[in-house]
Amino acid sequence: MGEIDPAFVQEPDHRPKLRTIEVDEIPVIDLSVSEPEKLASEIGKACQKWGFFQVINHGVPLELRNRVEKVAKAFFDLPIEEKRKAKRDELNFTGYHDEEHTKNVRDWKEVFDMLIHDPTILPASPDPDDEETTTYTNKWPENPPEFRETCLEYCREVEKLAFRLLELISVSLGLQADRLSDFFKHQTGMLRLNYYPPCPSPELALGVGRHRDGGALTVLAQDDVGGLQIRRQSDGEWIPIKPIPNAYIINIADNLQVWSNDLYVSAEHRVVVNSQRERFSIPFFFFPSHYVTVKPLEELVNEQNPAKYKEYNWGKFYVNRTGSNYKKLDAENVQIDHFKAPESE
Ligand SMILES: O=C(O)CCC(=O)C(=O)O
Ligand SMILES: [Fe+2]
């Protein structure tokens, strides 16, 4: 120890085992397959067993992905004082940030966050009785000059993929393809650029500590370095997700776990860093409109299978989370477990 700031040091139980073998276990699904039922069935199985899968032939142009990766690298290569000109602040959570905490331990990473829809409306506070909203707009860096246009073009393309996946997931649950689409009329999602610099003590710190994603689903581009690990449901082992060139990693997030009444899992995951190579990843977080009430879908609950969650408001959940990710707090931040129905605990 002693090489890195203690704020980054994980408790012994959560430190990564470094030499894990790469196993190619989560399903890889080819989206160019034309029968929607076959696709939906493969996706459904993956969502139940893993909560994660990779997609290939997904329709997002490779040339655009390469361009967005290039502007991300150019931005993070800038001197720190340049990057901090676009820093997030108390009033606006978009922009550059290098002090994120997951479960109160600092993450070994820098990020740049942007809203997929500009402006985005969110509740002004997590207080359930406060009906005020706040309108957020994106903060942009001056350099590289093509940053803004490239990121926005990329958001539009990945958004199409996210809506298509949402439809396939609905079908996989035995519902109409558009059953979940209305929840996203004023979606509140975010595109994040992650930069994980080499870390002198990768056995002590994590790029992102263990967590579940809070929204509906995540569409993640990772580079060829590797480091993302998911917790296997069957035995709790941390499984590395193998980088596949030009694939996207899709993960079910908390809202879908609740909508599906625990049929689909929002799996815990984390990012391991290394001492040699920097790593980049780009998650697209697909979130519903702020006013959406999240609860198990009526079609999926009955007497034998009662609702396992009480309803909650997405916007309040989100602003509560966002406020807690950026500083060290005394308490755990909000989790869907807090909305478990008493009889299912
Ligand atoms: O960098 C990655 O591979 C995943 C990052 C992640 O889980 C997140 O930003 O929520
Ligand atoms: Fe995540």
TrEMBL record:
Residues 122-142 are annotated as: Disordered. SUPFAM superfamilies: Clavaminate synthase-like (SSF51197). Keywords: Iron, Metal-binding, Oxidoreductase. InterPro entries: DIOX_N, IPNS-like_FE2OG_OXY, IPNS-like_sf, Oxoglu/Fe-dep_dioxygenase_dom, Plant_2OG-oxidoreductases. Pfam families: 2OG-FeII_Oxy (PF03171), DIOX_N (PF14226). This is Fe2OG dioxygenase domain-containing protein. Residues 186-288 form the Fe2OG dioxygenase domain. It comes from the Eukaryota. Belongs to the iron/ascorbate-dependent oxidoreductase family.
